Amino acid sequence: MSPPIQLLSPEIINLIAAGEVIDSLAAVVRELLENAIDAQATRLTVSVFPELWQVMVADNGRGMSLDNLRHCAQAHHTSKIFDLDDLWKITSLGFRGEALFSIAQVGQLTIQSRDATNDSNGWLVNYNQQGEMSEESTAPMAPGTIVTASHLFGTMPVRRQGLPTFSQQLKAIQGIVENLSLCHPQITWQVHHNKKSWLSISPGKTSQHILPQLLKRVHFNDLQFLCETVITPSHEQAKIEMVLGLPDRTSRGRLDWLKIAVNGRVVRSPQLEQTMLAGLSRTLPKGRFPVGFLLLIIPPSEIDWNRHPAKTEIYLKSLEFWQERVTEVIDKALKLSPITISTGEQNQRVKKLLKASENKGVYNLGHSESNELELIQLRAVGQVNQTYIVAEHSHGLWLVEQHIAHERILYEKLQDEWQLIPVQQAIILTQISLKQVEQLQRIGLDIEPFGDNTWAVRNVPKLLENREDCPDALIELSLGGDLESAQVAVACRSALRNGTVLELSQMQEILNNWKKTRNPRTCPHGRPIYLPLEESSLSRFFRRHWVIGKSHGI
């Protein structure tokens, strides 16, 4: 049975920053969907008719009794909270008792509902602009609720003219549905625009199953899902869920798919967004941005939702604690570990490579599910074109690009210890600008004037100490913008070059050190370091499951 809908006390009303939240068609959709999710719906249908200024949301949630229907659209009536203490333990998406009342004020509101546990009849109720019931009648229906908001802003022509265009409002509705589907992956979504199917999202176990439906060029195996249980500073249990696009497999041309959610709602949190970007620093190519979704499931006492009418801005207590935990989860996602390595179709590039070869034959590849792989021991067995290290393990082999693997090793060592050493004979630089001099000083070099437009450098990064091209390297460092870019430049210049012949012991040393790096998937410039060729894929390609006699036609 659904809990009773009651009027909030004046004390609570004065504390809640409710305001007017219905400012567009998208806002109507948002509030109705949040109510449906609070009602434990697992199937949601949204119908939008922009030209008619009408929105309809149908759900299979627990529904409402006739008594609740009579009060649900009145101001400050809600079933989510009852007393002042409830404000500090909010677990629902809606709680202020303003949404339906605000919708009734700007349009014609009709609700058809049947209580899933206590009512054999459905009821249809119309409301006036004050949210009071104006008409009721029985309506045969399955358990759940259908809310229709029509003629929205019809009594406010000036306000209608000031609203975003229909295309902008539809884009906002799409964003709302996508965000909620990530937060609540168990829900089936159907969205219609003018009676035509527009969006369809199938349910999944986690948001890793949802995100590929929203980003068509992102595949399930391009993503890594991690879930961690943590104990908060207040000694309560919380959970962190993260879906991260692996940097060697997927990225975006702009920062539009790094989303953060708290307790089932996507929110704006610049601090946590910067934490995620910092955790993925130097894993993507220049001008590319990560794909990621972070969901914090936090005790209600750790959050203050009363910062914004749309509940998109919150106050998160113990922010530094959550930033540290998020960084730890990102580190785990990027490492090569049993959690993050899978066999078979984990790498779409390998699948396409084998598929291209298969197309030249007369047979078809089979398909199998990916399974987690034991933590592998890589053994160097050879070198291809003096560029790629061939590494064997119990489940197949990998090709590791030796230069960028070594570059990743050196870069992380430089991050841990930026060591400058004095040189016996100063290195003379000429024709450099004051801006370049300032950059060299910024990264710790001892540089001083040595004549007309000439400068003497007295110390250098340790890796450059014995290099003949040290002056050229210093010029390159002077063109950077910060210490990090200088470390990347030093690592790149110092890493062994492709075309270098290596002994097996040297290859093995590179493999061992590379596996231990914090971000082994890509080099500091964002290039992928390794290509896996798993035994399962090779076995299918070479048809090792065939019976020899049968394959010869016997």
Automatic annotation (TrEMBL):
GO terms for molecular function: ATP binding; ATP hydrolysis activity; ATP-dependent DNA damage sensor activity; mismatched DNA binding. Belongs to the DNA mismatch repair MutL/HexB family. The lineage of its organism: Bacteria, Bacillati, Cyanobacteriota, Cyanophyceae, Oscillatoriophycideae. GO terms for cellular component: mismatch repair complex. InterPro entries: DNA_mismatch_repair_CS, DNA_mismatch_repair_MutL, DNA_mismatch_S5_2-like, HATPase_C_sf, MutL/Mlh/PMS, MutL/Mlh/Pms-like, MutL_C, MutL_C_dimsub. Residues 215-335 form the DNA mismatch repair protein S5 domain. One of its GO terms (biological process) is mismatch repair. This is DNA mismatch repair protein MutL. PANTHER family: DNA MISMATCH REPAIR PROTEIN MLH, PMS, MUTL (PTHR10073), DNA MISMATCH REPAIR PROTEIN MLH1 (PTHR10073:SF12). The gene is mutL. It comes from Crocosphaera watsonii WH 0003. Residues 380-502 form the MutL C-terminal dimerisation domain.
